[in-house]
Amino acid sequence: MTEVDLYNLAPTLQLMAVGLAVAALPLGWWLWRQRSATPSGRLKALTLITLFLTFDLVLFGAFTRLTDSGLGCPDWPGCYGSASPMGASTHITAAETAMPTGPVTQGKAWIEMVHRYLASGVGVLILSLAIMTWWQRRQSDSISPWWPTFTLVWVCLQGAFGALTVTMKLFPAIVTLHLMFGIGLLALLTAQAVRYGGAGSRPVPAGLRAGLWAGFVLLWLQIALGGWVSTNYAVLACPDFPTCNGQWVPAMDWQGFSLWRELGHTPDGQILPFLALSSIHFVHRSAAWVVLAVLLWVGWRLRQQPGLISAGRWLLRLSALQFITGLSNVVLGWPLLAAVLHTGGAAAMVVTLTWALCISRAEFSSRSLTPSRPAA
Fold it and tell me: Is 112 among the catalytic positions?
Protein backbone atom coordinates (compact mmCIF):
# COMPACT_ATOMS: atom_id res chain seq x y z
CA MET A 1 0.00 0.00 0.00
CA THR A 2 1.42 3.41 -0.97
CA GLU A 3 1.38 6.60 1.10
CA VAL A 4 -1.25 8.02 -1.23
CA ASP A 5 -3.52 5.10 -0.33
CA LEU A 6 -2.94 5.75 3.37
CA TYR A 7 -4.13 9.34 3.25
CA ASN A 8 -6.17 11.19 0.66
CA LEU A 9 -4.74 14.69 0.19
CA ALA A 10 -7.52 15.87 -2.13
CA PRO A 11 -9.82 17.31 0.58
CA THR A 12 -6.90 19.20 2.14
CA LEU A 13 -5.84 20.72 -1.17
CA GLN A 14 -9.42 21.57 -2.08
CA LEU A 15 -9.98 23.21 1.32
CA MET A 16 -6.86 25.29 0.77
CA ALA A 17 -8.23 26.36 -2.61
CA VAL A 18 -11.50 27.41 -0.99
CA GLY A 19 -9.52 29.41 1.59
CA LEU A 20 -7.73 31.23 -1.24
CA ALA A 21 -11.08 31.98 -2.88
CA VAL A 22 -12.57 33.30 0.39
CA ALA A 23 -9.55 35.57 0.95
CA ALA A 24 -9.39 36.75 -2.68
CA LEU A 25 -12.18 39.33 -2.39
CA PRO A 26 -10.89 41.18 0.71
CA LEU A 27 -7.31 40.97 -0.61
CA GLY A 28 -8.35 42.38 -3.98
CA TRP A 29 -10.30 45.21 -2.33
CA TRP A 30 -7.33 45.97 -0.08
CA LEU A 31 -4.87 46.08 -2.97
CA TRP A 32 -7.10 48.47 -4.93
CA ARG A 33 -7.93 50.81 -2.04
CA GLN A 34 -4.38 50.94 -0.61
CA ARG A 35 -2.44 51.14 -3.87
CA SER A 36 -1.07 54.61 -3.04
CA ALA A 37 -0.86 54.30 0.76
CA THR A 38 2.28 54.24 2.86
CA PRO A 39 3.70 50.86 3.94
CA SER A 40 2.33 51.29 7.45
CA GLY A 41 -1.03 52.38 6.06
CA ARG A 42 -1.27 49.31 3.85
CA LEU A 43 -0.39 46.99 6.70
CA LYS A 44 -2.85 48.69 9.05
CA ALA A 45 -5.65 48.33 6.51
CA LEU A 46 -4.90 44.65 5.89
CA THR A 47 -4.69 44.02 9.64
CA LEU A 48 -8.07 45.69 10.23
CA ILE A 49 -9.68 43.64 7.45
CA THR A 50 -8.22 40.47 8.96
CA LEU A 51 -9.37 41.53 12.44
CA PHE A 52 -12.92 42.12 11.20
CA LEU A 53 -13.13 38.73 9.48
CA THR A 54 -11.52 36.99 12.48
CA PHE A 55 -14.19 38.51 14.72
CA ASP A 56 -16.84 37.16 12.32
CA LEU A 57 -15.12 33.78 12.45
CA VAL A 58 -15.28 33.75 16.27
CA LEU A 59 -19.00 34.52 16.11
CA PHE A 60 -19.58 31.80 13.54
CA GLY A 61 -17.53 29.39 15.64
CA ALA A 62 -19.88 30.11 18.55
CA PHE A 63 -22.85 29.56 16.23
CA THR A 64 -21.34 26.24 15.13
CA ARG A 65 -20.90 25.08 18.71
CA LEU A 66 -24.31 26.32 19.89
CA THR A 67 -26.16 24.62 17.04
CA ASP A 68 -24.41 21.36 17.98
CA SER A 69 -22.70 21.31 14.57
CA GLY A 70 -19.16 20.72 15.80
CA LEU A 71 -19.33 17.11 14.61
CA GLY A 72 -21.48 17.85 11.56
CA CYS A 73 -18.57 16.41 9.62
CA PRO A 74 -16.92 13.90 11.96
CA ASP A 75 -13.56 13.87 10.13
CA TRP A 76 -11.06 16.60 9.27
CA PRO A 77 -10.30 18.58 7.16
CA GLY A 78 -12.93 17.30 4.73
CA CYS A 79 -16.38 15.87 5.24
CA TYR A 80 -16.35 12.07 4.92
CA GLY A 81 -13.28 12.48 2.72
CA SER A 82 -14.92 15.14 0.53
CA ALA A 83 -14.24 18.87 0.36
CA SER A 84 -17.93 19.72 0.80
CA PRO A 85 -21.13 18.12 2.13
CA MET A 86 -22.32 17.71 -1.46
CA GLY A 87 -19.72 15.04 -2.07
CA ALA A 88 -20.57 13.40 1.26
CA SER A 89 -24.35 13.47 0.80
CA THR A 90 -24.73 9.67 0.88
CA HIS A 91 -22.78 9.31 4.15
CA ILE A 92 -24.58 12.24 5.77
CA THR A 93 -28.00 10.96 4.75
CA ALA A 94 -27.21 7.53 6.18
CA ALA A 95 -26.07 9.05 9.50
CA GLU A 96 -29.09 11.35 9.63
CA THR A 97 -31.46 8.47 8.92
CA ALA A 98 -29.93 6.38 11.69
CA MET A 99 -30.05 9.29 14.19
CA PRO A 100 -32.29 12.18 12.98
CA THR A 101 -31.42 14.43 15.95
CA GLY A 102 -27.77 13.40 16.13
CA PRO A 103 -24.65 15.45 15.45
CA VAL A 104 -24.59 14.62 11.72
CA THR A 105 -27.29 16.16 9.52
CA GLN A 106 -27.19 17.98 6.20
CA GLY A 107 -27.65 21.37 7.86
CA LYS A 108 -25.05 20.76 10.55
CA ALA A 109 -22.55 19.49 7.99
CA TRP A 110 -22.86 22.71 6.01
CA ILE A 111 -22.50 24.85 9.13
CA GLU A 112 -19.35 22.97 10.12
CA MET A 113 -17.81 23.19 6.66
CA VAL A 114 -18.63 26.89 6.21
CA HIS A 115 -16.82 27.46 9.50
CA ARG A 116 -13.80 25.62 8.10
CA TYR A 117 -13.97 27.61 4.85
CA LEU A 118 -13.99 30.90 6.79
CA ALA A 119 -11.12 29.70 8.97
CA SER A 120 -9.10 28.82 5.88
CA GLY A 121 -9.75 32.29 4.44
CA VAL A 122 -8.60 33.97 7.65
CA GLY A 123 -5.50 31.78 7.60
CA VAL A 124 -4.68 32.97 4.08
CA LEU A 125 -5.12 36.60 5.16
CA ILE A 126 -2.79 36.17 8.12
CA LEU A 127 -0.23 34.43 5.89
CA SER A 128 -0.54 37.34 3.44
CA LEU A 129 -0.07 39.81 6.29
CA ALA A 130 3.12 38.06 7.42
CA ILE A 131 4.50 37.97 3.87
CA MET A 132 3.63 41.62 3.22
CA THR A 133 5.22 42.70 6.50
CA TRP A 134 8.52 41.02 5.61
CA TRP A 135 8.31 42.59 2.14
CA GLN A 136 7.51 46.10 3.43
CA ARG A 137 10.37 45.90 5.90
CA ARG A 138 12.68 46.39 2.93
CA GLN A 139 11.17 49.87 2.53
CA SER A 140 10.87 50.82 6.19
CA ASP A 141 13.10 49.61 9.02
CA SER A 142 10.48 50.76 11.55
CA ILE A 143 8.20 47.88 10.57
CA SER A 144 8.76 44.76 12.63
CA PRO A 145 7.79 41.45 10.99
CA TRP A 146 7.91 39.43 14.19
CA TRP A 147 4.40 40.15 15.48
CA PRO A 148 2.74 39.02 12.21
CA THR A 149 5.05 35.99 12.14
CA PHE A 150 4.07 35.09 15.70
CA THR A 151 0.41 35.58 14.72
CA LEU A 152 0.91 33.16 11.83
CA VAL A 153 2.30 30.54 14.22
CA TRP A 154 -0.61 31.25 16.57
CA VAL A 155 -3.24 30.70 13.86
CA CYS A 156 -1.56 27.43 12.87
CA LEU A 157 -1.92 26.27 16.49
CA GLN A 158 -5.52 27.44 16.41
CA GLY A 159 -6.10 25.31 13.33
CA ALA A 160 -4.54 22.32 15.08
CA PHE A 161 -6.93 22.73 18.01
CA GLY A 162 -9.78 23.00 15.51
CA ALA A 163 -8.78 19.65 14.05
CA LEU A 164 -8.48 18.11 17.52
CA THR A 165 -11.93 19.45 18.40
CA VAL A 166 -13.36 17.15 15.74
CA THR A 167 -11.03 14.16 16.01
CA MET A 168 -11.26 14.08 19.83
CA LYS A 169 -15.08 14.33 19.70
CA LEU A 170 -15.59 17.69 21.43
CA PHE A 171 -13.15 17.01 24.27
CA PRO A 172 -13.99 19.93 26.64
CA ALA A 173 -10.41 21.04 27.31
CA ILE A 174 -9.61 21.10 23.57
CA VAL A 175 -12.79 22.98 22.64
CA THR A 176 -12.14 25.57 25.36
CA LEU A 177 -8.55 26.05 24.19
CA HIS A 178 -9.82 26.43 20.64
CA LEU A 179 -12.04 29.28 21.84
CA MET A 180 -9.23 30.89 23.84
CA PHE A 181 -6.84 30.78 20.88
CA GLY A 182 -9.51 32.42 18.70
CA ILE A 183 -9.96 35.24 21.22
CA GLY A 184 -6.18 35.54 21.52
CA LEU A 185 -5.96 35.99 17.78
CA LEU A 186 -8.22 39.04 18.08
CA ALA A 187 -5.92 40.55 20.72
CA LEU A 188 -2.82 39.98 18.58
CA LEU A 189 -4.38 41.59 15.50
CA THR A 190 -5.67 44.53 17.54
CA ALA A 191 -2.20 45.20 18.95
CA GLN A 192 -0.72 45.15 15.45
CA ALA A 193 -3.38 47.50 14.08
CA VAL A 194 -2.59 50.01 16.85
CA ARG A 195 1.13 49.71 16.15
CA TYR A 196 0.71 50.33 12.41
CA GLY A 197 -1.63 53.25 13.15
CA GLY A 198 1.16 55.11 14.89
CA ALA A 199 -1.13 56.35 17.68
CA GLY A 200 0.72 58.23 20.39
CA SER A 201 0.88 56.78 23.86
CA ARG A 202 -1.67 58.53 26.08
CA PRO A 203 -0.76 58.98 29.74
CA VAL A 204 -3.29 57.71 32.29
CA PRO A 205 -3.12 57.54 36.09
CA ALA A 206 -1.07 54.61 37.31
CA GLY A 207 -4.09 53.25 39.20
CA LEU A 208 -6.19 53.21 36.04
CA ARG A 209 -3.39 51.53 34.11
CA ALA A 210 -3.24 48.83 36.79
CA GLY A 211 -7.03 48.55 36.61
CA LEU A 212 -6.83 48.02 32.85
CA TRP A 213 -4.42 45.13 33.32
CA ALA A 214 -6.51 43.69 36.14
CA GLY A 215 -9.66 43.88 34.01
CA PHE A 216 -7.83 42.32 31.08
CA VAL A 217 -6.57 39.35 33.13
CA LEU A 218 -9.92 38.84 34.90
CA LEU A 219 -11.76 38.99 31.58
CA TRP A 220 -9.55 36.22 30.18
CA LEU A 221 -10.22 34.05 33.22
CA GLN A 222 -13.95 34.69 32.88
CA ILE A 223 -13.90 33.81 29.18
CA ALA A 224 -12.15 30.54 30.06
CA LEU A 225 -14.85 29.81 32.66
CA GLY A 226 -17.56 30.72 30.15
CA GLY A 227 -15.98 28.48 27.55
CA TRP A 228 -15.91 25.69 30.13
CA VAL A 229 -19.63 26.22 30.80
CA SER A 230 -20.45 26.10 27.11
CA THR A 231 -18.25 23.14 26.18
CA ASN A 232 -19.70 21.11 29.07
CA TYR A 233 -23.26 22.14 28.14
CA ALA A 234 -23.79 23.52 31.66
CA VAL A 235 -25.64 26.71 30.70
CA LEU A 236 -29.00 25.40 31.94
CA ALA A 237 -27.62 23.62 35.00
CA CYS A 238 -28.83 26.63 37.03
CA PRO A 239 -32.16 27.53 35.37
CA ASP A 240 -33.11 30.24 37.87
CA PHE A 241 -31.71 33.64 38.84
CA PRO A 242 -30.27 34.96 41.12
CA THR A 243 -30.33 31.61 42.93
CA CYS A 244 -29.05 28.33 41.49
CA ASN A 245 -31.61 25.54 41.67
CA GLY A 246 -33.33 27.43 44.46
CA GLN A 247 -30.17 27.86 46.55
CA TRP A 248 -27.93 30.85 47.00
CA VAL A 249 -24.93 28.54 47.27
CA PRO A 250 -25.66 25.12 45.76
CA ALA A 251 -23.91 21.91 46.70
CA MET A 252 -20.63 21.66 44.76
CA ASP A 253 -19.02 18.76 42.95
CA TRP A 254 -15.54 19.71 41.80
CA GLN A 255 -15.28 16.85 39.31
CA GLY A 256 -16.64 19.31 36.78
CA PHE A 257 -13.32 21.12 36.89
CA SER A 258 -11.26 18.03 36.08
CA LEU A 259 -9.62 19.27 32.91
CA TRP A 260 -8.59 16.08 31.14
CA ARG A 261 -11.76 14.04 30.63
CA GLU A 262 -14.22 13.23 27.87
CA LEU A 263 -17.40 15.21 27.37
CA GLY A 264 -20.04 14.25 29.93
CA HIS A 265 -17.74 11.92 31.87
CA THR A 266 -15.51 12.03 34.92
CA PRO A 267 -11.78 11.29 34.58
CA ASP A 268 -12.44 7.63 35.50
CA GLY A 269 -15.09 7.27 32.76
CA GLN A 270 -18.23 7.57 34.90
CA ILE A 271 -21.16 9.78 33.89
CA LEU A 272 -20.57 13.34 35.09
CA PRO A 273 -23.10 14.08 37.87
CA PHE A 274 -25.52 16.98 37.56
CA LEU A 275 -23.98 18.65 40.62
CA ALA A 276 -20.73 18.97 38.68
CA LEU A 277 -22.53 20.85 35.90
CA SER A 278 -24.28 23.18 38.34
CA SER A 279 -20.91 23.82 40.00
CA ILE A 280 -19.38 24.83 36.66
CA HIS A 281 -22.27 27.20 36.01
CA PHE A 282 -22.28 28.67 39.52
CA VAL A 283 -18.54 29.44 39.54
CA HIS A 284 -18.82 31.25 36.21
CA ARG A 285 -21.85 33.20 37.40
CA SER A 286 -20.20 34.14 40.70
CA ALA A 287 -16.98 35.28 39.04
CA ALA A 288 -19.02 37.40 36.63
CA TRP A 289 -19.98 39.81 39.42
CA VAL A 290 -16.34 40.50 40.23
CA VAL A 291 -15.32 40.93 36.60
CA LEU A 292 -18.35 43.12 35.87
CA ALA A 293 -17.57 45.42 38.81
CA VAL A 294 -13.94 45.87 37.72
CA LEU A 295 -14.83 46.51 34.08
CA LEU A 296 -17.55 49.01 35.00
CA TRP A 297 -15.05 50.92 37.13
CA VAL A 298 -12.44 50.84 34.35
CA GLY A 299 -14.99 51.94 31.75
CA TRP A 300 -16.17 54.81 33.93
CA ARG A 301 -12.61 56.01 34.53
CA LEU A 302 -11.69 55.73 30.85
CA ARG A 303 -14.54 58.11 29.98
CA GLN A 304 -12.62 60.80 31.88
CA GLN A 305 -9.37 60.33 29.94
CA PRO A 306 -8.71 62.30 26.72
CA GLY A 307 -8.32 59.96 23.77
CA LEU A 308 -9.85 57.02 25.65
CA ILE A 309 -13.43 58.23 26.01
CA SER A 310 -14.73 55.99 23.24
CA ALA A 311 -13.03 52.94 24.79
CA GLY A 312 -14.72 53.72 28.10
CA ARG A 313 -18.12 54.06 26.45
CA TRP A 314 -17.70 50.82 24.55
CA LEU A 315 -16.62 49.00 27.69
CA LEU A 316 -19.71 50.19 29.57
CA ARG A 317 -22.02 49.25 26.68
CA LEU A 318 -20.44 45.83 26.31
CA SER A 319 -20.68 45.24 30.07
CA ALA A 320 -24.41 45.91 29.86
CA LEU A 321 -24.68 43.60 26.84
CA GLN A 322 -22.89 40.81 28.71
CA PHE A 323 -25.19 41.14 31.71
CA ILE A 324 -28.34 41.13 29.56
CA THR A 325 -27.29 38.23 27.33
CA GLY A 326 -25.94 36.20 30.26
CA LEU A 327 -29.22 36.67 32.13
CA SER A 328 -31.20 35.83 28.97
CA ASN A 329 -29.30 32.57 28.56
CA VAL A 330 -30.60 31.48 31.96
CA VAL A 331 -34.16 32.82 32.20
CA LEU A 332 -35.05 32.32 28.51
CA GLY A 333 -33.59 28.82 28.20
CA TRP A 334 -30.39 29.53 26.25
CA PRO A 335 -31.72 31.31 23.13
CA LEU A 336 -29.33 31.07 20.20
CA LEU A 337 -29.11 34.82 19.52
CA ALA A 338 -28.33 35.69 23.14
CA ALA A 339 -25.72 32.93 23.37
CA VAL A 340 -23.91 34.06 20.20
CA LEU A 341 -24.03 37.70 21.33
CA HIS A 342 -22.63 36.68 24.72
CA THR A 343 -19.54 35.26 23.00
CA GLY A 344 -19.34 38.25 20.68
CA GLY A 345 -19.55 40.68 23.58
CA ALA A 346 -16.68 38.97 25.37
CA ALA A 347 -14.59 39.05 22.19
CA ALA A 348 -15.37 42.75 21.68
CA MET A 349 -14.33 43.44 25.28
CA VAL A 350 -10.95 41.83 24.62
CA VAL A 351 -10.50 44.01 21.52
CA THR A 352 -11.49 47.15 23.46
CA LEU A 353 -9.19 46.47 26.41
CA THR A 354 -6.30 45.48 24.13
CA TRP A 355 -6.70 48.73 22.21
CA ALA A 356 -6.84 50.77 25.44
CA LEU A 357 -3.74 49.05 26.82
CA CYS A 358 -1.79 49.55 23.59
CA ILE A 359 -2.43 53.31 23.35
CA SER A 360 -2.01 54.17 27.03
CA ARG A 361 0.85 54.30 29.49
CA ALA A 362 1.07 54.88 33.22
CA GLU A 363 1.46 58.52 34.19
CA PHE A 364 3.73 59.20 37.14
CA SER A 365 3.64 62.46 39.03
CA SER A 366 6.71 64.66 39.04
CA ARG A 367 6.83 64.23 42.80
CA SER A 368 7.42 60.49 42.43
CA LEU A 369 10.31 61.16 40.05
CA THR A 370 12.08 63.69 42.30
CA PRO A 371 14.70 62.17 44.61
CA SER A 372 13.92 62.70 48.25
CA ARG A 373 16.28 64.92 50.20
CA PRO A 374 18.30 63.31 52.95
CA ALA A 375 17.29 64.19 56.46
CA ALA A 376 19.32 66.91 58.11
Answer: yes
